[in-house]
Amino acid sequence: MTDQLAPEIEARIRESFAKQPMMETVGGEIVEIAPGRIVIEAPIREGLRQQQGFAHAGLIFTLGDNAAGYAALSVMPPGSEVLSVELKINLLSPGLGRLVAEGRVLKPGRRLVVVAADVWGVDESGARKLVAALQGTMIPVTV
Amino acid sequence: MTDQLAPEIEARIRESFAKQPMMETVGGEIVEIAPGRIVIEAPIREGLRQQQGFAHAGLIFTLGDNAAGYAALSVMPPGSEVLSVELKINLLSPGLGRLVAEGRVLKPGRRLVVVAADVWGVDESGARKLVAALQGTMIPVTV
Amino acid sequence: MTDQLAPEIEARIRESFAKQPMMETVGGEIVEIAPGRIVIEAPIREGLRQQQGFAHAGLIFTLGDNAAGYAALSVMPPGSEVLSVELKINLLSPGLGRLVAEGRVLKPGRRLVVVAADVWGVDESGARKLVAALQGTMIPVTV
Amino acid sequence: MTDQLAPEIEARIRESFAKQPMMETVGGEIVEIAPGRIVIEAPIREGLRQQQGFAHAGLIFTLGDNAAGYAALSVMPPGSEVLSVELKINLLSPGLGRLVAEGRVLKPGRRLVVVAADVWGVDESGARKLVAALQGTMIPVTV
């Protein structure tokens, strides 16, 4: 893969991302975008926590799913939208700080795109701790 | 397992659930509670949708995770809290209507509790469609 | 689904199964075959054990994968072969006795078939214990 | 992690590996061993193939499981054995050539060790293709 994403593909990803009310609810932002690789950041808003004050697994999953999904979309043919087929998440440490989700393509394909994502918790000093690892499958759908 | 949950275990589950800001954000409610089995319902709020207007996979995961987690907690020793170790989700159809997540214990254990959850979409006529199937692992933690 | 499998589909499954050298190596046999549901049995041969004398996770996976895969093939169009896209296995108890793997279709589909399988250990008295639960995705391929 | 594995831990891994009849059946050999990282190689023996002549998913899983499991054992306290709790495998391309499974530790822990493994197919020229990616959980057991 080249390092530069075609402008129409980047536009398609940003447009799809902007149309997700969920990303507004969680405060998610795309901070890196490259072929087969997307990084999304979000704070841990009060309303998205679990009973002990950490990020709810559902928030961690949401960010990992989106990072992986848009990484997949970046290698799909023009005119595609992306659908999550399945994802597996291992939760490694409590979600604390600012969350950074890095999605990447393990294997592109016409019918299926295999993806992975890591979700990190970053504290105020910039130190990062791995919060979750995801692995899964995305498919292109025609819109 | 017997059909009746000990009152202190039911209280522990309801208390933990009530302490999750995430459940308030998604409008989740426990509608059934039995040993090894919890059912949670939630609407698909506007702010929790993806780009095509369906429930975001993150919302579906959140409900399945909670139903599976509290099903696990229902078979854990008194004084435990529950932590999600890992979960696998297959997304089967678009999330539409009212979501109903049914968590169940596949195998209780002292160190690990293996769980599954189904998430259904229920339309206004009451017809239900399977939206997602989850399988995973929970552990008890001392609080 | 009806209870009776079309004869040409049953023949296709039995033919594909018979062409797998792995099934001969593990001593696997189809013992039930219905639309969306296949049951395979196998002994735990000496050479397929792990370091403590139990069935190797790889043997348990092999049987669950095949049961799930042929359950998927039973709902695929004529002329298809089946390919495992991904599978998740939770190992619940040591593999002992005779292994029985029950595969079933959670959701048929033109592009993807979502499947599950349970693998049981059955002792000489006929008592069964759940050894593993699998969930995954199969796709049709043209041969 | 340091690059050098303590001799007693290396001995424990090699001993456990040697006691697995399954590894003899598949012809598996440890080719690299370091803290949190194990590489296993095996040919694709005729009897371990599927209906199209490729490596059976069960063989690929077996090697990935063992590489991940022994990577986990390398970070466990003395006197432990390792047990696979759960594993997720994505199959990326047909298993061809000589199989090389690289297991690694994503997160060590007292109660749980989170692991990953990649399985490669290597042809006679030495070119390698990613055949499968695994992610899962191992636990220590006292023997």
SSE topology sketch:
The structure is a homotetramer of 143-residue chains.
Chain A: H1 7-18, H2 21-26, E1 29-34, E2 37-42, H3 57-73, E3 80-91, E4 98-107, E5 113-122, E6 128-142
Antiparallel strand pairs in A: 1-2, 2-4, 3-6, 4-5, 5-6
Please give a structural write-up.
The structure is a homotetramer of 143-residue chains. Chain A has one domain: Hotdog Thioesterase (Thiol Ester Dehydrase, Chain A, Roll), CATH 3.10.129.10. Chain A contains 3 helices and 6 strands; from the N terminus they run ααββαββββ. Chain A has helices at 7-18, 21-26, 57-73; strands at 29-34, 37-42, 80-91, 98-107, 113-122, 128-142. The first copy, chain A, has a 6-stranded antiparallel sheet with strand order 1-2-4-5-6-3, covered by helices on one side. The first copy, chain A, is globular and about 40 Å long. Chain B binds chain D through residues 85-86, 88, 111-112, 114, 136-137, 139, and chain D through 85-86, 88, 111-112, 114, 136-137, 139.
How far apart are the termini of chain A? 25 Å
Which CATH C-level class of chain A is it? Alpha Beta
Sheet-strand content of chain A, in percent, reads 35-45%
Q: Mean pLDDT of chain A, rounded to whole units?
A: 96
The largest contact between protein chains, plus residue counts on each side, is: A-B, 36 and 35 residues
What integer value in Å does the Rg of chain A equal?
14 Å
Give the biggest sheet of chain A: 6 strands, antiparallel
CATH topology of chain A: Thiol Ester Dehydrase, Chain A
Q: How many helix segments of chain A?
A: 3
Give the strand line-up of the largest sheet of chain A. Answer: 1-2-4-5-6-3
Shape of chain A: globular
Instruction: Find the CATH superfamily of chain A.
Output: Hotdog Thioesterase
- Please count the beta strands of chain A (DSSP E, at least 2 residues each): 6
Pfam families (chains A, B, C, D): 4HBT (PF03061)
GO molecular function, one term (chains A, B, C, D): fatty acyl-CoA hydrolase activity
InterPro entries (chains A, B, C, D): ACOT13, HotDog_dom_sf, PAAI_dom, Thioestr_dom
Keywords (chains A, B, C, D): Hydrolase
